[in-house]
Write a structure and sequence with these properties.
mainly alpha
């Protein structure tokens, strides 16, 4: 479909921007910690809830700075 191609092109353009690239690191850190919580600490070197909270706060601060600098 034509709209699918257009959407794919838009997504590829967005993913190639500096802002999106900078957002990937804090996002990936949160994703990893979220998986630890979802697996209930069964993974090797799992983080606990208080560590998740600290990383969440740090990542949110980073998200805000990245987005603020993008404007």
């Amino acid at each position: 479909m034509k709209s699918d191609k257009k959407n794919k092109d838009i997504i590829e353009q967005m993913l190639s921007t500096k802002t999106i690239a900078e957002l990937k690191k804090p996002y990936e850190r949160l994703r990893t910690i979220r998986n630890d919580i979802n697996h209930n600490g069964m993974r090797k070197d799992s983080k606990n809830g208080s560590e998740f909270k600290k990383l969440l706060e740090k990542s949110l601060t980073q998200f805000r700075e990245i987005i603020k600098d993008a404007h």
